[in-house]
Design goal:
Blueprint lengths: L1 H19 L5 E9 L1 H7 L6 H6 L4 E9 L3 E6 L26 E5 L4 E8 L2 E7 L17 E13 L2 E16 L2 E14 L17 E7 L2 E10 L4 H4 L6 E2 L2 H20 L4
Parallel strand pairs: 6-12
Antiparallel strand pairs: 1-2, 1-11, 2-3, 3-4, 4-5, 5-6, 7-8, 8-9, 9-10, 10-11
Length: about 270
């Protein structure tokens, strides 16, 4: 009887230990909001009531991070009620992910990141790295800023995870009326080490762990829910029909498209 009692106790302890283990796969839903009126006001630009009325309304987009122990994908959710159409979304972060729509695929084991995007009816796959600005400048007049990360002591909970605060300070030089000026802006990142993998809704903005929120002028991206469940391999594997492309090759394609657009408008390449 005593032996049976010990077996039952052992099974209960084992069950509790299994239940206490962190989940290994699931889906995290992110919500991205962009308000151009807030962005304009934050930059000190005063507009008339008529101009404000003509300004686009704030937009909300949802994104899904699907993950298991080895891989993950981050994609925009398709919805008939979406306020922006896929392929033309703008997240208010400029060179930090603005422009055409991208899906991201993570390989945690090899520490590899691939971004997938449609361009001229072709799906391209391009290798990327977290925490680094693009090697190429896409188009003339776009100046790549310098990013400085400042760790803060503040901690808050998002979805039950302890998230640490990091301030990303960007500095970029612009010529205004012939005078070169430095423009500095700040974004706030909240990351956690408790998920066991590295991730960011915007891979350029990353220092460590999994970023669950990014806050900036007029833009807010944050994880809203998490659901632990089995993930199908086809949801996180790279698309089989994608064409590999380098950042330099992409720059050439985008520059050519820009020139063709300008040629069609005013008959000049420049």
């Amino acid at each position: 009887m005593r032996r049976l009692f010990m077996v039952i106790i052992s099974l209960i302890i084992f069950s509790i230990r299994v239940d206490a283990q962190p989940e290994k796969s699931g889906t995290i839903l992110f919500e991205s909001t962009f308000d151009p009126a807030v962005l304009t006001a934050a930059n000190g630009i005063k507009l008339s009531s008529e101009a404000i009325a003509r300004m686009p309304k704030s937009s909300v987009n949802n994104f899904e991070l699907k993950f298991d122990q080895l891989h993950a994908s981050y994609k925009q959710q398709e919805s008939s009620n979406s306020s922006t159409q896929r392929g033309g979304r703008y997240n208010g972060l400029g060179v930090f992910g603005g422009g055409f729509s991208r899906d991201y695929y993570y390989d945690f084991q090899s520490n590899r990141l691939i971004q997938a995007f449609d361009l001229n009816d072709t799906l391209f796959l391009m290798q990327d790295k977290m925490g680094l600005l693009p090697e190429m400048k896409f188009g003339t007049g776009q100046i790549v800023p310098v990013i400085e990360y400042i760790k803060a002591d503040e901690v808050k909970q998002i979805l039950g995870f302890n998230c640490h605060k990091v301030i990303a300070r960007t500095t970029v030089k612009h010529k205004i009326m012939g005078v070169e000026k430095e423009i500095t802006e700040e974004l706030t990142l909240w990351y956690t080490n408790e998920l066991g993998f590295d991730f960011s809704p915007n891979p350029v903005l990353w220092t460590a762990g999994a970023v669950l929120a990014i806050e900036s002028k007029g833009t807010h991206i944050q994880a809203k829910s998490i659901q632990y469940k089995d993930i199908r391999a086809e949801d996180i594997d790279l698309p089989k029909t994608g064409v590999l492309i380098s950042q330099e090759q992409l720059h050439i394609k985008l520059d050519l498209r820009r020139k063709l657009t300008r040629l069609s408008r005013n008959g000049s390449w420049n």
